[in-house]
Amino acid sequence: MATTFKRLTADDISTTKTRLHEIIPLTGSVVSGTYNAGGLASAVVLGDEYNIKTYGHGMFHSVFDYPYLSSSANHLFDMTIGLWSGGDFKTGSSGGYVVGSMQPLTASEDKHNIYSQMSQLLVGHDHTGNIKPFDHSGAITSSQGEKIHSALFLNFSRLLVKDEIEKGSFTMVVGTSSYFVPPKGPWGEDDDGLIYISDYGAKTDFKTNSPAGEYGILYRSDSSNTAVNADDAIRHNRVGLIYYQAGIVILEGSSSMATASIPLWQGRLNPTTAVVSEIGGAGAPVFTGFLTASISGVSSSGMGNSSGYWDWEQLMISGTIDQACNALRHRIRNIEFKNTTELNSTVYFCRAGHNEFNYSSNPSYVTGSEIRVKDGNPGHPSTTYVTTVGLYSNDGELMATAKLSEPLKKDDTTDFTIRVRLDY
Length: 424
Prior knowledge:
Blueprint: E1 13-27, H1 28-31, E2 52-54, E3 61-64, E4 75-83, E5 92-97, E6 104-107, H2 109-122, E7 150-156, H3 158-161, E8 164-165, E9 171-174, E10 195-198, E11 207-210, E12 213-221, H4 231-236, E13 238-243, E14 248-252, E15 267-270, E16 275-278, H5 312-318, H6 321-329, E17 332-352, E18 366-367, E19 370-371, E20 384-392, E21 398-410, E22 416-423
Antiparallel strand pairs: 1-17, 2-3, 3-4, 4-7, 5-6, 7-14, 8-17, 9-10, 9-17, 10-12, 11-12, 12-13, 13-14, 15-16, 17-22, 18-19, 20-21
């Protein structure tokens, strides 16, 4: 226990903040196809992959980088879907029927609850206490036409995100083919119909009106991440949101129904006539949605269209959450972003003047009345060897210690400053 203290002043204390980044690549082979029950990447068995964990409640499923029963497995992200109960997807009957059959389209309460839970966390409440829905532009007072009616949620693990996702670093490549095969072809290959999604320009243009922190808008662009210059065209290319501190990505499922004349977020399918209608606006580029014809193997005489596939609306409403997650997951070619670790440091400059700390309170420092290091010669100055620095609270309680790599000789002819850094 020290008996001599030196008080640190404001000039002796400095604080710094350092941001460390690492690139996180998630390849499609891990997300969809590496650990399938068939044992071969070409024989994917949906829902039976060893690294995909599903649950009895059916509310979401989890993706791991290795078979999840292995002790080496790391949790990558969770996937689920949600429907806005105040939009196109009401509880119970939606007022239409599945194309090719007379079975009514129904939206489950679970999907409404998931959407409400996520929007309550990420968007918050309005002045009346109602939960606000997600909005394509990030506006909280915009018209209903810009609200996200159906959402696919990717909730990345803290292991990957660390403190946050770096703004402007997120990219995602998905295929739009009408069958369950992980996209593997080159850019522009018709079989895969690859599209590129990124938070273009978010490094300087991001939103702050969320209780969960900062977030950006996800856009569709080409393989070189070149965004459309015209503001109106950019607006029509919005496909979702990314929340940086929360590590959550939201993709608009109904973007799959956009056409050349209907914006991505305004395309709505009439389940009775199978005609896509719009809610205001026009002039969007053509976009083949990543959930179109999502579930294969469905009989054309049952719940499915004439091609034997469910379309986006049939899937989002009548399909299970796991089926919708599989539909997206098996179209992911890769996801990449940079995470951020924020390292806060406090640096203490511990200064020892020439006439300070030249004597030790350690009992072994003396023998009888003589200082051991003087070797019996009274002409020698008192000498110590500094090995440890202790930081104490105002009431004298030891809070932290710092060890030197080697002892420093100290007498009345020397002074020095020891720099102690605390990282947290």
